[in-house]
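Objective 1b. Sequence-to-structure analysis of tRNA (guanine(9)-N(1))-methyltransferase.
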Amino acid sequence: MYKRETGGARPMAIAGRFVRERERLIGMTEAERAWRKQWMQDQILSPNEPRHVPEMYKFRFNIFRRAYKAPLNYLENMLEPVIGKRAHTLRFFTGKIFLLYLAGIGVLYNLKYNQNDWTRLGGFRILENRPAVLPGDSSFPKLSTKSNPSEYGSREGKLEESPSNVNDENVAQEELFNGVPISKLTKTQMKKYKRMLQWQSVKKLKRAKEKLKTRSKKIEAKMLNIDIGPSRKQLKNAKMANSSCKIGVVIDLSFDELMINKDMGKVIKQILRVYTENRRASAPMQLHLTSFIGRCKEEMAKHNGHENWDMHFHESSYLDVFPKDKLVYLSSESDNVITELEQEKVYIIGGLVDHNSHKGVCHQKAVNEGIAHGQLPIGEYFHSVSRKVFTINQVFEILLRVSEGKTFKEAFEMILPKRINMQPTLDNSEDDSNNE
């Protein structure tokens, strides 16, 4: 008789002393019978095996597999209380059918819209056998009934129109879109072609509406005595040769090597604004472009008709065009302050957009060439200006407004943007209050 209730077996053996049939003949106590009953029940598997263990699920599947399995898992959990075990089968086949559907759509798209033809290098290529042509068919080759050479050409020496020639002419007469025949456009190109046709259909109507709107605005402005700017007749007559203002303004374009192509484009855009403001002025200033060669000339060539502008273009330097004693180079580094514009002077604006990477280059150039230099008197009127370097068109507009009779202070307030945060100096504010 074993001293232990387990018959000497290790505690981890759940069958205990009854693992061997011989020992089952030994009498069992009530505790042993309950233990044996529990062990027999533990051998019966649960009806809903295998159980879902979240830790085991995360161990088997990485985060990416769990991500794309999540929608179908959610569908299975939602349908399982309704249709039972069939939810798992439905989940399995749903994913496979969806993948087959995507693969079929991809193949169909490539076969229909991405074929390997003469318009592209990649894509699917379909090789079709030429259909058989038998005697008696309309396309079967036949001997020509023409025996006389004169029958193959008219008296003007032109070939007669055979069916093949007619087909070639139809192909040649087919409308093209971006150099591609309409019948061979892709799906994306066809959408662009339809949008172009729609735009052309409404363009004339849209232009007519814009003209009517502009005309009504002009009539309304005349009734309310509102200035709508110069008319075309006034613009034609308001030229530099007929202007009462003889102050010269030169834009120096000799800084070609200091700018990248992007900054050169910005310089040309600012010159376009300068020209627009000068043309709309009642008394245009005498505007000149010097050192108009190289990249600046190539960039300006993108704007058709610039040769006909009311502006003087010079390939040479301003030193070869004007006397030295009449030149004044505008620079924010200069110690000289310009208080008024003189009619016989020519003011030079540096045609440079460098984002302050070449600071002082205009002032140094004026010093080296021995010509006068000066800066606009913005410090005389405003003491808290964040910067004194302005764009080409801003400097020109300030000069233009002063030439029209405005003071420098009024010109600064009109032209410079509000974000510069200009505050008048105490001396000027006191003078203004005393004048009042």
